[in-house]
Amino acid sequence: MSKILLCVAAIxxxxxxMDADAGGRARAAGAKPNAAGGTTAGAAAxxxxxxxxxxxxxxxxxxxxxxxxxxASGGAVQTANGxxxxxxxxxxxxxDGSGTRTGGFAASxxxxxxxxxxxxxxxxxxxxxxxxNTQATNAQTGNSYDGNTTYSNEGVSHSGTCTNAAGEVxxxxxx
Length: 175
Known about the structure:
By secondary structure, the chain is mainly beta.
C-alpha cells in the first residue's frame, strides 16, 4: 500500500515541477491482469494553465480474483497566486467484507492553512470505527483550531479547541 501512495505522491510532485508556461495537459490510464488472478488498473493526469496554475492526480486499484481489493489515489494543485492543496487516500477491501480506508488533505494559501486526516475500519460483522483529526490556522489573526472526531456503530464523539495567536485557549466561533 505504501508503494502505491509513494507513486501517487511522485506523480503529483513531478507534475508540480512542470513549466508553468507549458499550458498543456497529459493523461494516461490502463488496466491489465495481474499475477494474483485479478486486475490492476491506474490512471494519472496532470496539467498547467497559462496563468501558472497546475494540477496532478492519479489513482490505482488492484484486485486478486478472490474478492479482495486495494487502491489509492491522490492529487495536488497549485493556484496561479501560490495557493496549494493536496489529498491522498487509500483503501483495502477484503472478501469477507472487512476493510479499511485512510485519507487526508492539506491546503495552504493567503488566508491560512488546513489539514485533516482520518481513517475508518470495518469488520466482517459490520461493526466499524474511525476517527478524523483536523487543524486549521487563520493567516491574518493567527487563531487556530484543532478538532478530533471519533465514531463507531456505538455513536459519535467530537472535541475541538481553539487558540489565539498567543496560544491561549479561546471560545471557538459558531457558524
